[in-house]
Write a structure and sequence with these properties.
The protein is mostly helical. The protein is built from one helix and no strands. The protein is rod-shaped.
Length: about 70
């Protein structure tokens, strides 16, 4: 009877240890830096295409800015 109780405790500890691990996928809330050179402006928020400050619409997807 004592052996069965100890086996149950070991099984429970093993399940907690395995279940408590996190996958090595990285932190999904981490901020990502985007490398932008001096000649470019921010990318389009809808499609990510490069835009210029003088653009009123995205040159790729046509979405209006502002």
């Amino acid at each position: 009877m004592l052996e069965m109780a100890l086996a149950g405790v070991f099984a429970a500890v093993a399940l907690v240890a395995i279940g408590g691990r996190k996958l090595a996928t990285g932190d999904p809330t981490a901020m990502v830096r985007v490398a932008i050179d001096d000649s470019s402006d921010l990318p389009c928020p809808w499609c990510g295409a490069q835009t210029r400050e003088v653009d009123h619409h995205c040159p790729t997807c046509g979405q209006r800015f502002g």
